[in-house]
Design brief:
The complex is a heterodimer of chains A (about 525) and B (about 230).
Chain A lengths: L1 H16 L1 H15 L6 H24 L4 H25 L3 H15 L5 H16 L2 H10 L14 H10 L1 H11 L2 H26 L10 H12 L12 H47 L3 E5 L3 H12 L3 E5 L3 H9 L3 E3 L6 H6 L4 H4 E6 L4 H14 L5 E4 L6 H6 L4 E3 L1 H14 L1 H11 L5 E7 L2 H6 L14 E7 L4 E4 L12 E7 H12 L4
Parallel strand pairs in A: 1-2, 1-4, 2-3, 4-5, 5-6
Antiparallel strand pairs in A: 7-10, 8-9, 8-10
Chain B lengths: L4 E5 L3 H10 L5 E6 L14 E4 L7 H7 L4 E5 L4 H14 L4 E6 L2 H10 L3 E4 H14 L1 H12 L4 E8 L22 E6 L5 E3 L15 E7 H11 E3 L1
Parallel strand pairs in B: 1-2, 1-4, 2-3, 4-5, 5-6
Antiparallel strand pairs in B: 7-10, 7-11, 8-9, 8-10
Helix pairs in contact in B: 3-4, 5-6
The chains are: A alpha/beta (about 525), B alpha/beta (about 230).
Chain lengths: ~525, ~230
C-alpha cells in the first residue's frame, strides 16, 4: 500500500511539474473554457456547425430517407467528436494532481500517513460535481446517439440542440440574470403549483361525474388547470357545472396574478442587471481592442481630446470615478467605465495587456493630486507605458514628473506662448495654424522611411517631391535622433527616419503611394 | 506708431504667463486686476500691477498707458465678465488689437462677436496639443520648437520689396531650397488672403511687392534671404 501511495504521489508531482503536460492542459482549457482565448471562437463556431448539421439530418430523416454516409457522419463522426470534447472537458474541469499534492503536503506537515481514500473521495467529488452539472449532462446525452442501435437513444440527438446553450453567450447571460431572482421564482412556482393542484382536484371532483363535461380524468383536469392559469385558454376543455365555472373564475384571476408577477420578475431582474451586462460587454470589446488610449477622467479637456482621437479612429476607453460623468461619456459614444483610474483593480478588470494593447494613458483630471495618484498607479503596473498628464499648478510639476509622467501639459504656459507668438508675428502664426487645422486642404504629415522606400530612393534628391508639389520640411534621423531641416539633395535616407512633408492632402497621398511603389 | 504697452486684464495664472512671455517686447507690461484685495506683493518686478473695474471709465488707465497704442489681453476667468470687458474696450477703442481667452468654442464665438481680434480657446488648444502629440509626435515637436521655443530654427514674416529678384517666376515654379536653406511655406497678400506655396493659385500669380513670405529657416539664412527680397515685418 505504501508503495502504491508513493507511486501515486510521484506521478502527481511528475504531471504537475511537466511543462509539456501543463502546456497541453492549459491549451485545452483555454480552447474549451476561456472566452478571452483568441482561438476559442473558431472552436465554438466549429461545434455550432456540427450541432446544426446533426439536427438538420434528424429533421430531414423524419419524412425522407437519409443517405448512409450522412447517417455514418451523424452517428459516428459527430458523436465521436462530442465524446472527445466531453472527455477533454472532464479532464480540465479540475486538477487531480493538485489534489494529491495538496493532500501529500498536508499529511507531511502534520506527520500523518498519506490517505489515499480521502484523496480518491475528494477527486471523485470534484469530478462528480462537474459531471452532474446541467451543461455536462447535456454533453453526455448528446453523445448517446453513438449507440444508435438502441433506437430509443436516437432521441438524444435533440440534446445536441441544448449544447448550443454552451456556445450562446446571450443564453448564459440570460440564465445568470434570472438566477439572481431564484427565491422569487421559487415562491411564484410554489404559488402556481398549489393553485394548479387544488383547482385540478376540485375540477375533477365537480366535473368528472357530469356526462356533459369533457373532463373525465384527473389528467384532463390538470391539463385544463394549466391552460387556464397560463391565460392561454384553448377552449377545448371547459367547465360546464356552476361549481366548476366558479373554480375557473378563481383560476383565471390567479392566472392573471401569476402572469403579472412573472413579467415583473423578468423585467426587474434585467433592469437590476442591465448595467452589469453592459459593463461586461464593454470589457469584452476592450479586451480585443488594440492601440488603446485610456483617458483617466472626462473633464472639458478630456472631452475634446476624446472627440479628436475618435475622429482619427483610435480606440478610446474612459475611466472615471463618477457614474454621472461615465454616463456622459457613454452618451458621447465612447467606451466608458465607472472605475477609479487611481485603483490597480480597475486596470486588472479590463483584462488587457498594458504593454501590447495600450498606446498611452492620459491623466486628464483637472486636479494635480488625482493625476499624481493615477500616474503612480499606472506606473506601478507598467514601467514602460507612455503617460501624458495635465498640469494645473506649476508648483506640482516635479511631483508629476516623479510619479512617472512622460509628458506634462501646462495650459497656462501654452497660452502665454501662443499670445507672444500671435502679437509678434500674427501672419506667420495664423498661416501655420491654418496649415495644421483639420479643415485645411493642406496637410502636414509624417512619413516613416521603410526598407522598401530605401530600395527605391536612397537620397532625398531622388524623392521627386517637387513633382508632387510637396515641401519636405525636414527629416528626423533615427540614427542621431536629430531633426535635419530642409535637407540637401544628397542627404542619405535610412530605415526608421521620418520625413515631414507638406502639401495638398491629395498630393501628399499620391506622394506616399509613389514612395511605396516598386520601382523597376 | 509702434505699440509700446501690453495691457493684460486679469490677475491670474494665464495673465501672469502672458506677462512673462511678452515682457521685454514692450516698454510697459501691465496686469490689471479686478480684485481689490489681491495679494500682489512679491510679483515679478518686470511688470506693473494696477486695479481696474468694469465701469467703462478708461480715463485713468488711458492717461497712464495710452490704450490706443497698446495691445490688450482679456484674460478674466469669469467668461461673462471677460465678454463684457471685451465689448467695453471695443466700443471705446475701435482700432486696438484685442486678444481674449475663452474656455471653449461657444465662448470663443461670443468673444469674436464682442470684438476680439484673436481668441485663444484654452480647452480646444490644450486638447489639440495632446492629440497632435499622440498622432504626429515628431511634427508637433518640430513645429512647437519653430513657433514657440527660442531655438535656432525660426519662422519669420518677410515683406517683399524687391520683386525683380524672382525674375517673373510663379511661386510654385521657384526652387526655394536654392535660397540658402530657407523654406517658404505660404504667401500672405496685402488683402490678408493667404495661400500655400504650391497651391494652384501660386501657379498663376506672380509675387508682388507688399506680399509677405512666411519663411522658415535658421536665423542667418533668413537674414540673407531677407536682404535679397525685402524686409522683416
Amino acid at each position: 500500500m505504501k508503495y502504491l501511495n508513493r507511486f501515486i504521489i510521484n506521478i502527481a508531482y511528475f504531471l504537475n511539474s511537466s511543462v509539456w503536460y501543463q502546456k497541453k492542459k492549459r491549451f485545452f482549457y483555454n480552447l474549451l473554457e476561456n472566452d478571452n482565448y483568441k482561438y476559442k471562437k473558431y472552436f465554438d463556431i466549429f461545434m455550432i456547425v456540427l450541432i446544426f448539421s446533426s439536427v438538420s439530418i434528424l429533421i430531414y430523416e423524419v419524412k425522407k430517407d437519409v443517405h448512409d454516409y450522412l447517417n455514418l457522419f451523424n452517428d459516428y463522426i459527430i458523436s465521436f467528436i462530442f465524446l472527445v470534447e466531453y472527455i477533454l472537458r472532464f479532464w480540465v474541469s479540475s486538477s487531480v494532481s493538485r489534489v494529491i499534492i495538496n493532500q501529500d503536503e498536508y499529511s507531511d506537515l502534520l506527520g500523518r500517513d498519506f490517505d489515499v481514500w480521502f484523496v480518491t473521495r475528494r477527486i471523485m467529488k470534484d469530478k462528480l460535481e462537474y459531471a452532474l452539472s446541467a451543461k455536462a449532462i447535456i454533453d453526455f446525452f448528446a453523445i448517446m446517439p453513438f449507440f444508435h442501435e438502441l433506437r430509443l437513444l436516437r432521441v438524444f440527438i435533440l440534446f445536441r440542440v441544448f449544447k448550443l446553450f454552451r456556445y450562446a453567450k446571450s443564453f448564459q447571460t440570460f440564465s445568470s440574470v434570472l438566477a439572481t431572482k431564484k427565491f422569487e421564482f421559487f415562491t411564484l412556482g410554489m404559488f402556481a403549483s398549489i393553485i394548479i393542484f387544488v383547482s385540478s382536484v376540485l375540477m375533477y371532483v365537480m366535473e368528472a361525474n357530469d356526462p356533459k363535461s369533457p373532463i373525465d380524468t384527473l389528467y384532463q383536469a390538470f391539463y385544463w388547470s394549466i391552460v387556464t392559469i397560463s391565460t392561454v385558454g384553448y377552449g377545448d376543455v371547459v367547465a360546464v357545472s356552476k361549481e366548476g365555472q366558479f373554480v375557473a373564475v378563481v383560476v383565471i384571476m390567479a392566472g392573471i396574478a401569476v402572469l403579472a408577477f412573472t413579467t415583473s420578475l423578468f423585467v426587474s431582474a434585467f433592469t437590476e442587471k442591465l448595467e452589469d451586462i453592459k459593463e461586461s460587454k464593454v470589457i469584452q470589446d476592450i479586451s480585443k481592442a488594440k492601440n488603446i488610449y485610456i483617458l483617466c477622467g472626462y473633464g472639458n479637456i478630456a472631452k475634446e481630446v476624446a472627440k479628436k482621437l475618435s475622429k482619427a479612429h483610435f480606440n478610446i476607453i474612459v475611466l472615471d470615478k463618477s457614474s454621472q460623468i461615465t454616463e456622459e461619456a457613454k452618451k458621447d459614444g465612447l467606451l466608458a467605465l465607472n472605475y477609479d483610474p487611481g485603483s490597480i483593480e480597475s486596470y486588472k478588470k479590463l483584462h488587457i495587456n498594458m504593454s501590447t494593447q495600450v498606446r498611452a494613458i492620459l491623466c486628464l483630471q483637472e486636479d494635480d493630486v488625482v493625476n499624481v495618484y493615477t500616474a503612480l498607479t499606472v506606473r506601478s503596473l507598467d514601467k514602460e507605458i507612455y503617460i501624458i498628464s495635465l498640469l494645473m499648478n506649476i508648483a506640482n510639476k516635479n511631483k508629476l514628473l516623479y510619479s512617472g509622467v512622460n509628458e506634462l501639459l501646462y495650459d497656462k504656459e501654452f497660452v502665454g506662448l501662443v499670445a507672444r507668438e500671435y502679437v509678434g508675428q500674427p501672419v506667420a502664426f495664423e498661416a501655420i495654424h491654418e496649415l495644421r487645422s483639420e479643415n485645411s486642404l493642406i496637410k502636414i504629415d509624417e512619413v516613416t522611411i521603410t526598407e522598401r522606400i530605401i530600395h527605391n530612393f536612397s537620397v532625398v534628391g531622388e524623392l521627386e517631391n517637387r513633382k508632387f508639389r510637396i515641401v519636405v520640411l525636414g527629416i528626423q534621423k533615427k540614427s542621431s535622433a536629430r531633426f535635419v531641416f530642409n535637407p540637401i539633395k544628397t542627404t542619405i535616407l535610412e530605415a526608421g527616419d521620418v520625413l515631414l512633408v507638406m502639401g495638398n492632402y491629395m498630393f501628399v497621398r499620391e506622394f506616399i503611394k509613389h514612395l511605396a511603389k516598386k520601382k523597376n | 506708431m509702434k505699440k509700446t504697452n501690453a495691457l493684460i486684464f486679469g490677475y491670474n495664472e494665464y495673465g501672469l504667463e502672458i506677462a512673462k512671455n511678452v515682457v521685454g517686447e514692450y516698454e510697459n507690461v501691465v496686469i490689471l486686476s479686478l480684485d481689490d484685495m489681491i495679494n500682489i506683493r512679491g510679483h515679478d518686478a518686470s511688470f506693473k500691477v494696477e486695479r481696474f473695474d468694469l465701469s467703462d471709465n478708461w480715463e485713468y488707465i488711458d492717461s497712464k498707458y495710452d490704450i490706443k497704442n497698446s495691445k490688450v489681453f482679456c484674460t478674466l476667468m469669469d467668461i461673462a465678465e471677460n465678454i463684457f470687458l471685451t465689448i467695453s474696450l471695443r466700443s471705446a477703442y475701435k482700432d486696438i488689437l484685442i486678444i481674449a481667452l475663452a474656455n471653449n468654442a461657444e465662448d470663443s464665438n461670443k468673444l469674436h462677436m464682442a470684438g476680439a481680434d484673436k481668441v485663444i480657446p484654452i480647452v480646444e488648444t490644450t486638447a489639440g496639443i495632446i492629440t497632435d502629440m499622440l498622432k504626429k509626435p515628431i511634427l508637433t515637436t518640430v513645429l512647437h520648437n519653430i513657433l514657440y521655443e527660442d531655438g535656432e530654427l525660426k519662422v519669420m514674416q518677410i515683406k517683399v520689396t524687391k520683386t525683380e529678384f524672382f525674375k517673373d517666376q510663379y511661386p510654385a515654379d521657384i526652387d526655394w531650397s536654392e535660397y540658402n536653406g530657407v523654406l517658404v511655406l505660404s504667401i500672405a497678400h496685402e488683402d490678408m488672403s493667404r495661400e500655400f506655396i504650391y497651391s494652384a493659385k501660386s501657379k498663376h500669380n506672380y509675387i508682388k511687392n507688399g506680399d509677405i513670405l512666411i519663411s522658415v529657416g535658421y536665423k542667418e539664412d533668413l537674414d540673407n534671404f531677407k536682404n535679397l527680397v525685402g524686409e522683416y515685418v
